[in-house]
Write a structure and sequence with these properties.
With 379 residues, the chain is α+β, with helices and mostly antiparallel strands. The protein has 4 domains: 4-98, DnaJ domain (Helix Hairpins), CATH 1.10.287.110; 113-155 and 209-258, Urease metallochaperone UreE, N-terminal domain (HSP40/DNAj peptide-binding domain), CATH 2.60.260; 162-199, no CATH class; 264-378, HSP40/DNAj peptide-binding domain (Sandwich). Helix content is 27%, strand content 26%. The strands form 6 sheets. It has a 4-stranded mixed beta sheet with strand order 10-11-15-14. The protein is elongated and about 110 Å long. Bound molecules: zinc ion (2 copies). One zinc ion binds at residues 147, 149-150, 154, 204, 206-207, 211.
Length: 379
């Protein structure tokens, strides 16, 4: 695979256009953003990009055709100095980024363009009632905004920054080093302009050359029904501006659904404990079960055991991806009074003299945990 044509999978008479197309295809396949930091993909990405950098340039290509890699070594641009970050820059230069997480958090970029603002994280507290219906929230977010004094340029009076004299505006420094192995060229971000390619000689006083100042932005967030604390909402391009007039980054709104003491949530289902008296459990009754927004009447049959779970269909939470709604699971718990009036005590004693002993095994099995039984009820 060391032949440059083989690396791109093109024939030796491929046109410049074919080379570009072939490179894009293989580079995308091995791009680090799509291979989660795989070292092997990184190495392949570097190899194909190195080949592309030579074959796209007619002069270098003809030297390579005549003399191979040696032909390139003779005049500076030695391929051995080509590293992974050069490869990324080549890809970005010709094809741009992917808008992946790196871009989102203001990571890699083309050095000639102003950087996008870093993503901001905010937290939006929500009640269960808001989860039920969905809600529109207005939040104030502390952001970095374009400096009004210099209009984001960072230059006093709003002029344009001048090209960095050290790197001539390229934002990169190439260093040529000689060793027993030959000549190496390394490329690093320019130290003077920190890779931006421009410098500000006379700083704006208001933003100290940053091009941005603190401000508060009022943002509207539409929270759909059925969300949970695991969800987040990205507000594209609503956050910080980048330094020196770079585009706005995103705001990532993390959702924080507050616990409701009346319920336990299990996906779209809600679980509630409903106390009933012994007489109600024996004779059957109608009880009020709390729902997110009010209550529902539940018909309890006679002879219900403590711990029985009854399902009220469609009284749970909506599904975040559809129109379905979860159920409300009511767990009936027989309440035992710890204080009796003399009249109650007399009647209970009378009942004791008449009642049957419980069977050896009571259903539902009271020795098993509540959540096991919930699972049984669901299964
Ligand atoms: Zn520079
Ligand atoms: Zn300013």
């Amino acid at each position: 695979m060391s032949d440059y044509y083989d690396r791109l999978g093109v024939s030796r008479d491929a046109s410049g256009d074919d080379i570009k197309k072939a490179y894009r295809k293989v580079a995308l396949k091995h791009h680090p953003d799509r291979n989660a930091g795989s070292k092997e993909a990184e190495a392949r990405f570097k190899e194909v990009t190195e080949a592309y950098e030579v074959l796209r340039d007619p002069e270098k290509r003809s030297r390579y055709d005549r003399y191979g890699v040696e032909g390139l070594r003779s005049r500076g641009g030695a391929p051995s100095g080509f590293d992974f970050s050069d490869a990324l820059n080549v890809f970005m230069r010709d094809f741009g980024g992917f808008g992946g997480l790196e871009d989102l958090f203001g990571g890699r970029r083309r050095s000639s363009e102003p950087a996008r603002g870093k993503a901001l994280r905010i937290t939006i507290p929500l009640t269960l009632a808001e989860v039920l219906t969905g809600v529109n929230k207005t939040v104030n977010v502390a952001v970095l905004d374009l400096c009004g004094e210099c209009r984001g340029t960072g230059v006093r009076g709003g002029g344009r920054p001048s090209a960095c004299p050290t790197c001539g505006g390229a934002g990169q420094e190439r260093r040529v080093e000689r060793s027993v192995f030959g000549q190496f060229v390394s490329v690093a971000p320019c130290a003077r302009c920190r890779g931006e390619g421009t410098i500000v000689a006379d700083h704006c006083r208001s933003c100290r050359g940053e091009g941005r100042t603190r401000a508060t932005r009022k943002l509207k967030v539409r929270v759909p029904p059925g969300v949970s604390s695991e969800n987040y909402i990205t507000l594209r391009g609503e956050g910080n501006v980048g330094p020196r007039g770079g585009p706005r980054g995103d705001v990532v709104a993390l959702l924080d659904v507050k616990e409701d003491p009346r319920f336990r949530r299990d996906g779209n289902d809600l679980l509630a404990e409903v106390p009933v008296t012994f007489a109600q459990a024996v004779l059957g009754t109608r009880v009020a079960v709390p729902t997110v927004e009010g209550e529902e009447q539940l018909e309890v049959p006679a002879g219900v055991q403590s711990g029985t779970i009854m399902r009220i269909r469609g009284e749970g939470l909506p599904d975040v991806n559809g129109r379905d709604r979860g159920d409300l699971l009511a767990r009936l718990v027989v309440w035992v009074p710890d204080h009796l009036t003399p009249e109650q005590e007399r009647l209970i004693k009378q009942l004791r003299s008449l009642e049957d002993l419980p069977p050896a095994k009571v259903s539902p099995d009271s020795r098993r945990g509540f959540w096991d039984r919930v699972k049984d009820a669901l299964g």
